[in-house]
Amino acid sequence: MSIEQKIEGNIGKLFLADEIDLDKSPLVRENLKELMDKVKIVEVQLSKVKYIDSSGIAALVEGMQLAKSSSKEFYLTDVSNEVMKVIKLAHLDKFFQIKSATGKDALEGSSSQPVEQVEEAAEASENVDLNPSEENNQKEVEENKTQSDETQPSIKRDDDDGDKIKFKR
Q: Is 97 exposed, middle or buried (0-12, 13-18, 19+ CB in 10 A)?
């Protein structure tokens, strides 16, 4: 594994390559902490990473948490397919801020132009009442009661015939 740091103004870039596994993840943690002390924005470039295991992902998660606790920005950039598969498998693609993905395998190198990944911002629905009042709750209860029995399935026990259960649709 190779690690290279570059600082450009307030942006610290960490270039990782080859394999990030249990032996190498402490080095990733140390380099992330160093960069956090020096800059306001940290970008981890992952286009040349061929393999990453759970300890490598944990190092990236710790970097993200450290950035949040120090009010700094943390991004993953040029994420290789191999790393992206692991990130998606762990459902961390919503957790990390990913600037771009290469769309290529790490074995092929990073000669292609990165494809920008656009994240859709979650917006609140206009139809949701965030401050429900008792009056609105009462109306909902009444509306549910007024629905006819024909639209509401029900289960009734027929006590006359023993343990038979009747379903009404």
A: middle
Helix (H/G/I), strand (E/B), else coil: 51: strand
Q: Give the helix ranges, DSSP H, for the chain.
A: 25-38, 54-69, 81-89, 134-146
The CA-to-CA distance between both ends of the chain, in Å, stands at 64
The one-letter amino acid code at 73 reads E
What is the residue-level pLDDT of the chain in tens, covering all 169 positions?
Answer: 789 999 999 999 999 999 999 999 999 999 999 999 999 999 999 999 999 999 999 999 999 999 999 999 999 999 999 999 999 999 999 999 998 776 665 545 444 444 444 444 444 445 555 555 555 555 555 655 555 445 555 555 555 555 565 555 5
Q: CA angle, corner 116, sides to 112 and 118, nearest 5?
A: 160
Which amino acid is located at 15 in the chain? F
Cα angle for residues 27, 7, 109 (degrees, 5° grid) = 65
Query: Nearest 5 degrees, angle CA 12-CA 14-CA 19?
Result: 170
The total of other beta-carbon atoms located within 10 Å of residue 151's CB is: 7
